[in-house]
Amino acid sequence: MDQPQKMIIVSAPSGAGKTTIVRHLLDAHLNLEFSVSATSRLIRPGEIDGREYHFITADSFRQKIDEGKLLEWQEVYPGSYYGTLVSEVSRIHENQHYPIFDVDVVGGLNIKKMYGDQALALFIQPPSYEILEGRLRARATENEASIKKRLEKVRWELEFASKFDVIIINDNLNTAFQDAEKAVRTFLK
Ligand code: ADP
Ligand code: 5GP
Predict the structure, then answer these.
(1) Is 37 in the pocket of ligand 2 (CB under 6 A)?
(2) Cys-Cys with 40: which of 44, 58, 94, 166 at CB 3.0–4.6 Å?
(3) Three-class SS of residue 7?
(4) Residue bearing the CA closest to ligand 2, atom 15
């Protein structure tokens, strides 16, 4: 049997609802598997190394870049590196699953450029900047400095929306779940 080579990219500013929507898609029996990125940011309470991310030092991250182990990488916030491991894509395809990437807007568009029609790029759009800020604060996973770093990038990140294949408006969560699921099902058919 041919290995499925398609893949799903999910991008958005922090707090827009990527993680929530990716989790829903992973539970929707679509044969998706999460691509676990490498990052140099600190682990948050509740996260498990190897599940949300491979948490590594900035030095190990730079070594992986030099060794060509990253398909793409970005310094998403000053001092915090994030990158997609080449090995994740092959591992997931070998498992006969479709990779789903939760990556920043630039990384998402870079992956889309590499894989073209094999990749579906979804942009999760919050109803407004103010609502996104409220969600980010209510999530309470970040200190004020980290929230500020994230909010400073939001308006710039929102300008990338039209470059994606599909924009999912995340106002009502159930509607966003349905819209995202429908787009992915249609693409994978
Ligand atoms: P991201 O991964 O893009 O940073 P999250 O998925 O963590 O965003 O969502 C940010 C916060 O907003 C979380 O606490 C999540 O539960 C909440 N959230 C996500 N979507 C909605 C929605 N449609 N309505 C209300 N709260 C939401
Ligand atoms: P967080 O720190 O909230 O987990 O993620 C911060 C940002 O980094 C999010 O926009 C997330 O999508 C992005 N990100 C996570 N992994 C990667 C990756 O491998 N590559 C890129 N370019 N961005 C990533």
Answers:
(1) yes
(2) 58
(3) strand
(4) 103
Are 29 and 13 in contact by the 8 Å Cβ rule? The answer is no
Considering the domain 7-188, what is its CATH architecture?
A: 3-Layer(aba) Sandwich (3.40)
Find the ligand nearest to 153 CA.
2
| pTM: predicted TM-score of the whole model, two decimal places | 0.96
pLDDT tens for each residue of 124-135: 999 999 999 999
How many other β-carbons are positioned within 10 Å of the β-carbon of residue 172? 11
CB atoms within 10 A of CB 81: 23
Q: Cβ(107) to ligand 2 under 6 A?
A: yes
The residues spanned by each domain of the chain are 7-188
Q: Which of 55, 70, 82 to mutate to test the pocket of ligand 2 (most atoms within 8 A of CB)?
A: 82
